[in-house]
Design goal:
about 350 residues; alpha/beta; TIM Barrel; about 50% helix; binds coproporphyrinogen III
C-alpha cells in the first residue's frame, strides 16, 4: 500500500487509501456554535473577524475542539475579493452581504486587482498561524468563490433576492466580445489565482472553489461562465503548485457536474443535496472523489432520519473515493448534538462496513 500522509483528506484526494473516511462540514465555523457568536461579538463586525488573524484563527479552530473532523477551513469569505478590489462590501447582521453594485464599465474601471494580495495579507497570516496550530491529522483548506458566483454578488449587490441582473449581464456578454462583464470575469480569474497561490504559500494544503450559484447558469452558458473560468484558475494555480488538490463545488449544476468534473482539473467534486451520490458517481466516472451530501435540513431535523441518511451515505460510498460532508452549509439553528450524532453514526457505520 502507498505511504499515507496520515491526513485522510489529503490521502483521499491524492488517491491513497485514507486511514478512515475524511469528514468535514461546509460552514463548520459559524453561528450554530455559541463560542463563534461570542468571538464575532468581540470582533465587532464580520469583516473585522475575517481581518484579525488571531480571531479568525480562533473561530477556525472552534469546531475542531468539539468535533473530530479531518479538515479545517480557513475562516474568511468569498466576498473578500470584491472588498480587496475596492468595491464597498459590508455584512449586515441577520441580512447577509451588501455590496455597492457594479453594473457598467465605468464602475468596473474603478476597481483594481493590483493590491489584492497586499490587502488580503491578514488572511495569509491566519493561514500560516493555522498551519502551526492544527492537530496533525487535520488538513487545512483554503478557498475562494468561483468567478460566476462572486460576480453575481458584485452585480446584484449581494441580496440574492433578485438573481436576474447577473444572468442578463452574462447573456449580454455572451452576445458581444467587448462587454464589461467579460472584463469582470477576467479580473476575478486573475485575482483568484493570486489569492489562492498566496494561501498555499502560507500553508493551505487543499483548496475548495465555491460555485454556489452554478444553478443560475443556463446550460448553454455554463461552460463559458462556470467551467472555463474555474479551469483557468486551477491551471493558473497549478503552474506554481502542480500537485495541489482542489475540490470544486458547483452547487445546483445537475447533470452538468459531469462536464465540470471532466474539464476543470478538479481533484474532487462537491455534490449538493439535490443529486444522489449514486447519480453523481454515474455522471463523473469511477475515479472522481465525491464530497457530500447530507442535506443540512436533515442534520437540523435529527432523529432516526438523520441516522438512516448517514448510514445510507456510508453504505453507498467507498471511503477511498468519498469525503463526508453536507450538501451545503450547516444552518445556524442546528443543534450541536445533531453534529455529534452524525459523526458517531458515521464512524460506527464505517466500522461495520470495513
Ligand atoms: O466555516 C467555514 O465554512 C469557513 C468560512 C466561510 C464563510 N463563508 C464564513 C461566513 C466560507 C467558506 C464561506 C463561503 C461563502 N460565503 C459562500 C460559499 C459557500 C456557500 O455557503 O454557498 C458564499 C455564497 C458566501 C457569501 C456569504 N457570506 C453570504 C451569502 C453570507 C450571509 C448568509 C449567511 O450564511 O450568513 C455570508 C456571511 C458569512 N460567511 C457568515 C459566515 C460564518 C455569517 C456571518 C455572521 O457571523 O453573521
Amino acid at each position: 500500500m502507498a505511504m499515507t500522509t496520515k491526513k485522510p483528506l489529503l490521502d483521499v484526494l491524492t488517491h491513497k487509501t485514507p486511514e478512515r473516511r475524511a469528514v468535514w462540514m461546509m460552514r463548520q465555523a459559524g453561528r450554530y456554535l455559541p463560542e463563534y457568536k461570542q468571538t464575532r461579538a468581540k470582533a465587532g463586525s464580520f469583516l473585522e473577524l475575517c481581518y484579525q488573524p488571531k480571531l479568525a484563527e480562533e473561530v477556525t479552530l472552534q469546531p475542531l475542539r468539539r468535533f473530530d473532523f479531518d479538515a479545517a477551513i480557513l475562516f474568511a469569505d468569498i466576498l473578500l475579493i470584491p472588498d480587496a478590489l475596492g468595491q464597498k462590501v459590508s455584512f449586515k447582521e441577520g441580512e447577509g452581504p451588501v455590496l455597492e453594485p457594479v453594473r457598467d464599465g465605468k464602475t468596473l474601471s474603478a476597481l483594481s486587482g493590483d493590491n489584492v494580495t497586499d490587502y488580503l495579507s491578514p488572511i495569509f497570516e491566519t493561514v500560516s498561524r493555522l498551519s502551526q496550530s492544527l492537530p496533525s491529522h487535520v488538513a487545512l483548506i483554503g478557498f475562494c468563490g468561483a468567478p460566476w458566483t462572486v460576480a453575481t454578488y458584485m452585480i446584484e449587490g449581494g441580496t440574492s433576492r433578485d438573481r436576474h441582473t447577473a444572468r442578463v449581464a452574462a447573456w449580454a456578454a455572451a452576445g458581444s466580445d467587448e462587454h464589461w462583464f467579460n472584463r469582470l470575469m477576467d479580473l476575478l480569474v486573475e485575482s483568484s489565482i493570486s489569492y489562492l497561490k498566496a494561501q498555499i504559500a502560507a500553508g493551505a494544503e487543499v483548496l475548495q472553489i465555491f460555485e454556489t450559484w452554478a444553478s443560475d447558469l443556463p446550460p448553454v452558458l455554463f461552460e463559458r461562465f462556470c467551467t472555463m473560468p474555474v479551469a483557468k484558475i486551477i491551471a493558473g494555480v497549478r503552474e506554481t503548485y502542480p500537485g495541489i488538490p482542489i475540490i470544486g463545488f458547483p452547487r445546483g449544476a445537475g447533470a452538468l457536474i459531469a462536464d465540470f468534473s471532466a474539464q476543470t482539473g478538479i481533484s474532487g467534486v462537491g455534490v449538493d443535496s439535490g443529486m444522489s451520490l449514486r447519480e453523481a458517481r454515474r455522471l463523473t466516472g469511477d475515479k472522481m472523489v465525491l464530497q457530500g451530501n447530507l442535506d443540512p435540513l436533515c442534520l437540523l431535523t435529527g432523529g432516526k432520519i438523520l441516522e438512516s441518511e448517514v448510514r445510507a451515505i456510508s453504505a453507498e460510498c467507498d471511503p477511498s473515493r468519498h469525503i463526508f460532508n453536507l450538501g451545503h452549509g450547516i444552518v445556524p439553528a442546528t443543534p450541536i448534538e445533531h453534529v455529534e450524532k452524525m459523526l458517531s453514526v458515521l464512524r460506527n457505520a464505517d466500522a461495520e462496513r470495513a
